[in-house]
Amino acid sequence: MSVNMKGKSFLTLMDLSAQEIRYLLDLAHDLKAKKRMGLHGQALKGKNIVLLFEKTSTRTRCSFEVSAKEEGGNVTYLDPGSSQMGKKESLEDTAKVLGRFFDGIEYRGFDQQVVIDLAKHSGVPVFNGLTDLDHPTQILADMMTMEEHLHKPLRECKVAFVGDVRNNMSYAWMFGCCKMGVDFVGYGPQELIDGADKSILTACQAEGEKTGARIQLSHNMDDLKGADVLYSDIWASMGEEELIPQRAKLLAPYRIDDAMLEATGNPNVIFMHCLPSFHDFETKLAKEWKDKGVDIREVTDEVFRGRHSVVFDEAENRMHTIKAVLVATL
Ligand code: CP
Ligand code: NVA
């Protein structure tokens, strides 16, 4: 079946078909191979993309900037302090204005409804660069990285997300896994499992039944058995910083270490992380909390730097997959 994504927004993988996700992954592998050969296209020549960031970013912003420019496009970056959006101008008006100037809009912020409204009112493709609910461009990069390292079809893989099972990365994995037939377990404490949105879990389980994906949340370590990927994320997401001490206490038993890798029973398990990560005490935050007696590391330094870790391949793949999204939709 031929896939045509021109003009389509990229708000959540739940909106896409498995064929469309497959198409984006194939395109990303192809664009990466071309870049390795020093070949850049002109697929975005004459295209202007605006990047709206209401939260900080390294990988996502750089991926949009570098990939757009490598394909001949232009980007304009707006941080929360440098636009009128939400302060002097409504979201609807902002979307209508940006749609007149730009061929595509990337947004990172809080409410998923913002990307939905931007897409509704701007008339141009909108790309979700992370919200409190979802991080779909990250999952594309993660699946690409799995394909590079696991050498088997995604539908034969099992992903274990460890930690805050009710955060945007956990949900983003559920959305991606149920679409692509990948088994998913969110492994974390009952308190956070209880806080997860049950309607999301139910919807993903229903979709998973069609594709052969088992989607579950569990506090039982036995459910890590057979995982191909152990995935970690920071314990308190952007905007939740005041929760750091309580999360550190709650999630200390869920810090990924060598014993947890072994608990998968899979000698070839890979460790993945969306980054940024607290894996040592070399960051200002990790150091400040350590001085107060709180260890906020979600993974040990040994695992992060160890032979199972593919985190920097994963980070690089943000760029290739975001390029694929831009080339496919613009
Ligand atoms: N993984 C990720 O989205 O990284 P940034 O926050 O640096 O964009
Ligand atoms: N859950 C993290 C993901 C960062 C890429 C956050 O939202 O801060």
Write a structural description.
The strands form two sheets. This protein has a five-stranded parallel β-sheet with strand order 7-6-5-8-9. The model has no long low-confidence stretch (mean pLDDT 97). The chain is α/β, with parallel strands linked by helices and 330 residues long. The longest helix is centred in the first third of the chain and has 19 residues, at 18-36. The protein has two domains: 13-134 and 318-329, Rossmann fold; 158-227 and 229-265 and 270-307, Rossmann fold (3-Layer(aba) Sandwich), CATH 3.40.50.1370. The chain has helices spanning 18-36, 59-70, 91-101, 112-122, 136-150, 168-180, 190-195, 198-211, 244-251, 258-263, 284-291, 301-305, 311-329, and strands at 48-53, 74-78, 104-108, 126-128, 158-162, 183-187, 215-218, 229-232, 270-273. The chain binds phosphoric acid mono(formamide)ester and norvaline.
Could you name the ranges where pLDDT drops below 50 across 5 or more consecutive residues? none
* Beta-strand residue percentage: 5-15%
CATH topology of the largest domain: Rossmann fold
**Could you give the order of the helices and strands?**
HEHEHEHEHEHEHHEEHHEHHH
What is the overall pLDDT average? 97
- Specify the biggest β-sheet: 5 strands, parallel
Structural domain count: 2
**Could you tell me how far the N terminus lies from the C terminus, measured between alpha carbons in angstroms?**
20 Å
